[in-house]
């Protein structure tokens, strides 16, 4: 990954006449797959063959997960949300895990053994994203994003949960905590996008081949490898699932709006921020500084050598940090 100094010395990045129109034209939509939309008002599979390819990869990736104690399809105002409950062995109150964009529950496979030692774990597939949740009504803004998740949590036996979000799931968790804090006992944000800093232009540019459906698979694999610190992603079940979702599912949700520092400062529940020191989804130094100003230094953990795929790189360490956090008196 290029250093900040190298990026600063590239002349074209410093020209507003080039930079501003480029950002306006590409925007964050390129990253999250909201580019080149179809007329449908809700997220959908582009064809039956693509849907079958994704769920074959989903099921294969799910084989690395423990057996769910319960599988629920929760009806909300915006569609049906697939929720899984996994029975833990610890005494901590239940956790709810939110995955990143274009992924779903199996992305947490590496984390389940250590998290289940803390207590019960719920996972869900984000509504309007590839997965087993089914969007039925348009999601128009951040209020709608918070509402469907609030309705899903309200259907659980618990009044509130220890909410844990990764990447876009981190933004989704923070967005809920701002608008429906009664459902959030504690909030853990793992390298969240659009929360402590914006997405770098380089990442937006690299995302283009991953978000244009007719581009070769190699472009999506290259982007997924880039976000994961350069590791090989071919023939990896979770990576295959994510690639298939990016290729075959048309998302219809709005771009995630940047969460403001005052909104973070005003959060009423305990918050833990975990930031990857080699993340390409924001500038790690800027994100760390924002998180420390808004939440306090003690609320921020930086994994210096981690990429954006830190949940797979440091599953036990992350579980230890979460355990200390959610069981704190």
TrEMBL record:
Domain AB hydrolase-1: 94-215
Residue stretches in coiled coil: none
GO molecular function, one term: monoacylglycerol lipase activity
GO cellular component labels: membrane
Keyword Protease: no
Transmembrane regions listed in the UniProt entry: 18-36
Keyword Membrane: yes
InterPro entries: AB_hydrolase_1, AB_hydrolase_fold, AB_hydrolase_sf
Residues in the signal sequence: none
Pfam families assigned to the protein according to its UniProt record, in alphabetical order: Abhydrolase_1
GO biological process, one term: acylglycerol catabolic process
Keywords carried by this UniProt record: Hydrolase, Membrane, Transmembrane, Transmembrane helix
Protein name from the UniProt record: Alpha/beta hydrolase
Organism: Brevibacterium aurantiacum
Phylogenetic classification of the source organism: Bacteria, Bacillati, Actinomycetota, Actinomycetes, Micrococcales
